[in-house]
Specification:
The chain is α/β, with parallel strands linked by helices. It is 48% helix and 10% strand. A 6-stranded mixed beta sheet has the order 1-2-13-12-10-11, sandwiched between helices. A 5-stranded parallel beta sheet has the order 6-5-7-8-9, with helices on both faces. Strands 3-4 form a two-stranded antiparallel sheet. A hairpin with a 2-residue loop joins strand 1 and strand 2. The structure holds glucose-6-phosphate. The site of glucose-6-phosphate has 15 residues, from loops.
């Protein structure tokens, strides 16, 4: 057994789980009028209600004991302080420095990195303002109005999710597009509707070696040159974001349009850096800074609030509670805001790439579960599809609900209906429906006797299904910044408890390596090497069809 599963805090939680397993939240709410006050927190208008969880005062105390035992506060100080806690890559983890104020000091290898962060932010401001106000134009003199981000994974999902989420703040004449997939359909279908004269490509790649991104960038460049009839057009229509300035130079991107970031920014944590360039172009630099300000507010809260009142710590420990002590294998993200429709996809990467690990920091196999599968869809669409399983399936699926109190689009009763659905779902999941309640309902519908008894079992809802609710006034840049940073830090807390490195991604690297080997075989450039029978026959089938 590992040190973690043998530890006193873990063992006490195991025993506690068997006690609480028989209690219902229905009873807990009935017994404690102060439950909501006790189990909810607020920060800058963001209300985090975690009272609909299978916890009591003792559970919370024991979960926080586990967090203390794991050293959550100490690890937090190390991360914010620039220690190289990403040990398998020997890197600091400093996405928090990207939203630090100008006068902050964060040292990496004896150098304060904050002046560099603000130098790049100033560069982004100058560049985005000149594109937005039409000073910097395309090759034929037209303003650049279609921003096309070419990047994948961490160099795409964050900016895409944020541009979608903050559409109401977008420049009225601008549109943001995202090309990621090496599948030509992605670029062909995106460019089909665009006018080269008004299109600005941003090639975003931390390493500037990623096959998909460089292939798409080359195809985009060829498209532009063909449409505008001049190589010289590339200078105005391309920008790049990378840590690899040598490679951006070799690709031929005007150095004035190259935005730098650093190896201490993880790809999936990079939307706050120059990787956020499409966001700043689309919503403007003032709004981008509000987004950074929201994340900074969450950073300050995470660093300073006691564990008992600390949102990321509590959210993280609730995940540990269900994942490790109730055997939950997945959790759902359910935004009741259409603008957040890409949040589940973004969190899938952030969470699963960070904490989907099977060895601990020392490289030893773990004997406990690490991260859940993350999935979700915006409400109310999910209600008409997979909520059935959440309500009446055999597995526990903890879920995070989130909703704005006000909508950017007030239209008739839409928003009241949306909100009522959100609140009704968490209430129903918590309460369930007892036999007596179901029976009374059926009787009220005029059923009786055998007909009633036959239908009754299908009408029962076990309830006691845990949910969190994040409620906020309006989905604005500050709130979104807080929300994203909340999840970033929650993941960090869980990684600390599981004693894993949340900041490497060797699984991604392996995929990149494998595809590189198969490509020349698939193109018929080299003979087939030894593969398993399945892969060999799939390759042969592809080759024979060419
Ligand atoms: C993120 C991962 C991964 C990465 C992509 C793109 O944390 O490392 O998703 O962002 O593989 O990499 P580049 O930015 O280097 O092209």
């Amino acid at each position: 057994m590992s040190k973690l599963t043998q530890s006193p805090a873990w063992q006490v939680l195991l025993a506690h789980q068997s006690q609480i397993n028989n209690q219902t939240m229905r009873e807990m709410f009935a017994a404690d009028a102060a439950r909501f006050d006790k189990f909810s927190l607020q920060l800058d208008g963001l209300l985090f209600d975690y009272s609909k969880n299978r916890i009591n005062d003792q559970t919370l105390k024991l979960l926080l004991d586990l967090a203390r035992q794991a050293g959550v506060s100490e690890w937090t100080a190390r991360m914010f302080g620039g220690d190289k806690i990403n040990t398998s890559e020997n890197r600091a983890v400093l996405h928090t420095a990207l939203r630090a104020p100008r006068d902050a000091v964060v040292m990496v290898d004896g150098k304060n990195v904050v002046p560099d962060v603000h130098r790049v932010l100033d560069h982004i401001r100058r560049y985005t303002e000149s594109v937005r106000n039409g000073e910097l134009r395309g090759y034929t003199g037209k303003p650049l109005r279609h921003i096309v981000n070419i990047g994948i994974g961490g160099s795409a999902l964050g900016p895409l999710m944020v541009c979608e989420a903050l559409k109401p703040y977008g420049h009225p004449e601008m549109q943001a597009h995202f090309i990621s997939n090496v599948d030509a359909t992605d670029i062909v279908e995106t460019l089909r509707h665009l006018d080269a004269e008004t299109t600005l490509f941003i090639v975003s790649s931390k390493t500037f070696t990623t096959q998909e991104t460089l292939t798409n960038a080359r195809s985009a460049r060829a498209w532009l040159v063909e449409k505008l009839g001049a190589e010289a057009a590339v200078a105005n229509h391309f920008a790049a974001v990378s840590t690899n300035l040598k490679a951006t130079g070799e690709f031929g991107i005007n150095p004035e349009h190259v935005f730098e970031f650093w190896d201490w920014v993880g790809g999936r944590y990079s939307l706050w850096s120059a990787i956020g360039l499409p966001i700043a172009l689309f919503i403007g630099m003032d709004n981008f800074e509000r987004l950074l300000g929201g994340a900074r507010a969450m950073d300050e809260h995470f660093q300073s609030a006691p564990l008992e009142r600390n949102m990321p710590v509590i959210l993280g420990m609730l995940g540990v509670w269900y994942g490790n002590f109730f055997g939950a294998g997945s959790y759902a993200v359910l935004p009741y805001d259409q603008y957040l429709h890409r949040l589940p996809a973004y969190l899938q990467q952030l969470e699963m790439e960070s904490n989907g690990k099977c060895v601990d920091r020392a490289g030893q196999p773990v004997d406990y579960d690490t991260h859940f599968t993350v999935w979700g869809e915006p409400g109310t669409n999910g209600q008409h599809s997979f909520y059935q399983l959440i309500h009446q399936g055999t597995r526990m699926v903890p879920a995070d609900f989130m909703a704005p109190i006000r909508s950017h689009n007030s239209l008739g009763e839409h928003h009241a209906m949306l909100l009522s659905n959100c609140l009704a779902q968490t209430e129903a999941l918590m309460l369930g429906k007892t036999e007596a309640e179901a029976r009374a309902e059926l009787e009220a519908q005029g059923l009786s006797g055998e007909a009633l008894e036959t239908l009754l079992p299908f009408k029962l809802f076990p309830g006691n299904r845990p949910t969190n609710t994040m409620l906020f006034d309006l989905l604005d840049p500050h709130t979104l910044g807080m929300l994203i940073a909340l999840y970033e830090h929650k993941i960090f807390v869980q990684g600390v408890v599981w004693n894993i490195n949340s900041f490497d991604q060797w699984g991604v690297e392996y995929g990149k390596q494998l595809a590189g080997k198969l490509l020349p075989e698939l193109q018929g450039k080299v003979a087939l090497s030894a593969h398993d029978a399945s892969t060999t026959n799939l390759l042969k089938r592809c080759l024979s069809a060419r």
